[in-house]
Amino acid sequence: MAASGMLRRWFCLIGMLIVEGVIFGLAFYGIHFCRSAVWRDFNAAVKEPVTVNALPYSTLINAAAGEFKISPAVIAAVIQAESSFEPKAVSPAGAYGLMQVTPGTWREVNEQIKACSGRHAGSCDSRCYTDPALNIRIGTAYLAQLYTRYHGNMVLALAAYNAGPQTVAVYGGVPPYGETAAYIERVISASYRFRHKRQPDYERWTARWQAAGGLVAGGMLITAGMLFFTGRVLYRRYRGWLWK
Length: 244
Description:
This protein has helices at residues 3-44, 58-68, 72-83, 103-113, 126-129, 132-149, 154-163, 165-171, 178-194, 203-238. By secondary structure, it is mainly α. It holds the Pfam family SLT.
């Protein structure tokens, strides 16, 4: 190929890479916009005065919701995501019960709300951790503390509940962990289901933007490879980067 043709290809590839970069940026913004819209709608419903019924432990959930001013649907959704309503569940990390509370968190929260006061002598143990009434009350109290800490942002509260407040502080928001993002989405979806409401149809658009972003990213890699190859040929032909 003539040198002029190679140069035209070089500049054409640069233009393609710029256009693909812009499209990729739009896809990234589209994902962020759709996800933020779902989160805003979810946050607005956190204190809705509703009750959950026909669920395991619904009486305990509604009582904890009234005490700590958190939507029963959100509490039930956290239980669904954490333990699938299994009161004896124990995680590999040592979290217990319906809301998967760790012993350290249990001690801190229990000192404040005295959930176990008068129930037994000595420290709490696994019998307390797996007691449905105690676990729901402690877990909801902790979730309410996080909700207050993040100024009414339940999405951040859920991120901290899953990944820890320190991790949220490090990243200044929801950490970029697939597990945490999936956890938040599971809780949000379940909360809509328990409220008998349809979730805003942003998930379909999010999936489309993600697919588009993946395709464009692949195209960018191919274009960058072709750009590198063309530049290498031109470099060898001109013995440097000064092309005429």
